[in-house]
């Protein structure tokens, strides 16, 4: 049965009341509930779930509005739509807040969830709230623990030593972002590196597939695919060894190179500070030891390796070149990463830019072994062609002289292989994923440590390992490690007293599979079930979120999906890639304002507290603080952030203007993947537009009776109404394409605005109320309401009920363009006389050249401008213009 939504007809647009009414109606009618229906095509619309930090920020509102527009649009196209929501609820901020406010993290988190859920509901998103997930609930994380035990048994999770940041004052492990300039963020103590046992997920076992499957993801932004590709970082090269003798013992220094063709140009080797040979040298020379310590402190990000200042020290150790037999000295170099390849390189300063800089600095020999015809080698500076693989061939390389890149590598790899000193090798930059966190507010790792049996996974019947929620957080170490009631247990294998693991999992684990659990959040017997096959078949149709998750979250989610597939959890519908299409929304930016205090430190002032003057481009050119009327400095336009105090609270916006204005402003201000600049004027404009739409519909609905109009006007009507209908149906086509294929919502809105301008011009006259006009008006306004519905659903729900009593926009179909209305029976040509614009000419769309020429010569403008002169020639550009040359 059709549910009634019949709001009272009001002359003024009053968002507060009508938004509540619309939301109540949607709730009553279950408009957003998703029920599996194999007979209907599904559309799974997923937005990245928020961390429950306290309240929504503008980035959330943008993200979820984009999702909601797509969800509602696809519902109108007849899809069975799933749009779920949940909470990425574990994580450090809850622990920090707990220390500050003295509330347990659980309590803080649940209160935030409650508040943010209210905010999301107030925005009118068509979310199926029956599927809500909070990752901190045992019903959720028990399945993650269950999967952990399966993967552990298969060796896809394993334990080894890992390096962490240790705060010696707080006696706790810190995350990288908690270490500021080498010191603990809270204690200020110098941070030490410590090696502790940690659990790792073997993502490297999937590196090849994670890379190859990127090719399938043609619904992803190219930029994100490239970032994933670079992160996985596959390189093909040669791994080989330099043999050596140390204290009479034979050893081998292994290196990885992508340029084995330059092997005869090696003039030294360089190892990382953490390398065994560096440790050997450090143990015998305090100066080397000091240098090694200095290098380890740095903690260099890989991106900086190429540009940072090269530093090194010789070890005094010599190794033997495997092909030439030459003695080569080993240096310690700060540009060599321990975590990549073998933590050592063969240095070829003539052809590797980093080695070149290093050799110049320490005056080491540089030997050219690659030449390019027409290019001259010189030691004065680095030249790009030194690295040119395509054009170069070997020189000064004995038997390899004259060989090109690929053939030289083949020959050299073969010679290394016969000496059993090396072979071709594929190397990945991707490392295994360390998931242990020495934190409280996370999913407990389901392992029991037994003195006799070792690490024993918690058996299924003892899952979940529930995280105690009533704790006191002090900031010094995890409370779990101080709770015998948590860690004391008996070994599941031998029954002897044992100790439960007190580390928790990286919160990236929860976000790696939440989108699957939305399909079956109520299943208490399995992690996933056949409903996943329904909603996720062919991939989740649309995923929307921030570009900051372009690498890790998306990579981990892809990895988990493949793990679950390989455990057979998807039955006979193997899902390999979770997200078919990805939209990365742009940042929300806003102007910044500040004053400098007496120390020259900037005091940032929120845009809501200033009055700004704008230049003609809409940029703030001057501003004053409302409180004291005195000027403030106008800073740049920057991403909304706490540090620049330029965040605008969506709540205030919603309270003042309503959810629809917030949604419309966001979708109109810029395309979803570009940055969105906050502007009060833009919000005002959005609000005005909604008032206008309201008034137009109101006038149409309340106009009664048939008023007489001038006979002359009456005659023009059919052509004008036809033009309006044509524009209407063109707009319908364009809006559907903008929403569906192009995902450019701002241009869709602009097209509707233009349509309404034409409407006002042609049909806005309420004195004329003839049946023909009424029909076109009704048709136009119904379609406008439905076209805008995905973006501003509340007001459109109310307007649609006024236009079509007894019907609801929530169950209406998206309008379809009427092909006959699109047919253009008359077209307009530009009329020129002697090349000068003299007006226009209306002719039948299918008019031939002769009749166009006749019409041109006969028209009023031609008669006037030719003034009796005969036309020498007529130029006709079909569909465009006609030029009379006299
Ligand atoms: C000699 C050489 C000569 C190299 C030359 C390059 C050009 P990708 O492509 O990123 O895999 N390398 C190897 N291990 C390293 C480490 N642990 N830290 C820093 N650099 C390392 O890079 C592979 C190249 O990076 C290798 O090839 C090696 O330098 C260096 F004309 O070997 B090459
Ligand atoms: Zn045991």
From TrEMBL:
Record: residues binding ATP: 642
The segment(s) forming the Methionyl/Leucyl tRNA synthetase domain are 47-179
- What catalytic activity is recorded? tRNA(Leu) + L-leucine + ATP = L-leucyl-tRNA(Leu) + AMP + diphosphate
Stored SUPFAM superfamilies: Anticodon-binding domain of a subclass of class I aminoacyl-tRNA synthetases (SSF47323), Nucleotidylyl transferase (SSF52374), ValRS/IleRS/LeuRS editing domain (SSF50677)
PROSITE patterns per UniProt: AA_TRNA_LIGASE_I
GO MF terms, alphabetically ordered? aminoacyl-tRNA deacylase activity; ATP binding; leucine-tRNA ligase activity
Which segment of this protein is annotated as the motif 'HIGH' region?
50-60
Keywords in alphabetical order, please. Answer: Aminoacyl-tRNA synthetase, ATP-binding, Cytoplasm, Ligase, Nucleotide-binding, Protein biosynthesis
Query: What subcellular compartments does it reside in?
Result: Cytoplasm
Motif 'KMSKS' region: where in chain: 639-643
Q: Which residues form the Aminoacyl-tRNA synthetase class Ia domain?
A: 430-590, 638-678
Q: What is its EC number?
A: 6.1.1.4
Q: Does the keyword Nucleotide-binding apply?
A: yes
Q: List the PANTHER family.
A: LEUCINE--TRNA LIGASE, MITOCHONDRIAL, LEUCYL-TRNA SYNTHETASE
Q: Name the protein family.
A: Belongs to the class-I aminoacyl-tRNA synthetase family.
Question: Under what name is this protein listed?
Answer: Leucine--tRNA ligase
Q: Which organism is it from?
A: Candidatus Accumulibacter aalborgensis
